[in-house]
Amino acid sequence: MNRSMEAHNQMLKSGLCVRSFGTGTTVRLPGPSESRPNVYEFGTPYADILADLKGKDVHLYTSNGLIKMLERNVLVKLAPERWQSMDRTQAFDVVFTYEERVFSAVLEDLQARETESFRAWHVINIETRDNHDEAVTSAQITVKLCALLDECDELEVQLVPTVNDFVEHCSRAVRYSLVYT
């Protein structure tokens, strides 16, 4: 929620068409201990999650950054969405992930779909530690990469060399995969 929503926020501010998703079965946020996370269903409005955490322990969730993160999320979109539940007719030219586990889940979902139109999905993972500063940096990297990809006349032909050139000047591990559905 932190990394993808920071990227969503910065991409929106840059004028890009963007959606963001989670890949788990529920939305899990840190709780008072590791064994007691706060768990919400996808589709629960960010405003409701924010109100719930403020009601539980405003000091804890302010000090660990959740309040600030959720206040940002409320301004970006209504609620978290689940990747595996999205409308199957929805398609994206490029999908960004920020963790290897999520990259694998997206690829697994795409590869399990019936191939109908042989539409290309370019999936790029920019490995990012899950903290505010790293999320901001990776979001900035994503916006720069999107600007370069937007200049490509033929995305399928130019994406790999563009990403490879970009990675040489990037401080993150980047993986790429192409899937047709």
Describe the fold and architecture.
The protein is α+β, with helices and mostly antiparallel strands and 181 residues long. Helix content is 48%, strand content 13%. The chain contains six helices and five strands. It has helices at 2-13, 46-63, 66-76, 100-112, 132-150, 155-167; strands spanning 27-29, 38-40, 94-97, 120-126, 174-180. Strands 3-4-5 form a three-stranded mixed β-sheet, sandwiched between helices. A two-stranded antiparallel sheet has the order 1-2. Strand 3, helix 4 (100-112) and strand 4 (120-126) form a beta-alpha-beta unit. Helix 1 crosses helix 3 (66-76), helix 1 (2-13) crosses helix 5 and helix 5 (132-150) packs across helix 6. The longest helix has 19 residues, at 132-150. The chain is globular. The chain starts with a helix and ends with a strand. 24% of the residues are buried. The model has no long low-confidence stretch (mean pLDDT 94).
